[in-house]
From TrEMBL:
It holds the Pfam family DUF3579. It comes from the Bacteria. Gene3D superfamilies: Uncharacterised protein PF12112 family, DUF3579. InterPro entries: DUF3579 (IPR021969). It comes from Acidovorax temperans. This is DUF3579 domain-containing protein.
Amino acid sequence: MVSPSTKEVFIQGITHDGKTFRPSDWAERLAGVMSQFRPGGSRPGSHLSYSPWCIPTTLNGVKCVVVHRDLQNHEPMAWDFVINFARDNNLQVAEACLLPDAPPPKA
């Protein structure tokens, strides 16, 4: 399903049938569950922010969760959980690389 050389996987809120996945806050919920899995492990208060390895976002109007390959290296069971979540819910998965936002144009 996912190439081992890919650095990031995008789980998209669109099923293979083209339907929008519900509930509408699924990406935030999934990323919230994964918030404890982070570089250096869980710390007090870490549940208050998303893990850099599992980030909810919206791309072209579609809710997505960007999952970084480092999650698999450090927490294989957590990686399996998110990949199986996508598979079990028939969600589209794309292998890609999230690029940083472009700096604002200079005046």
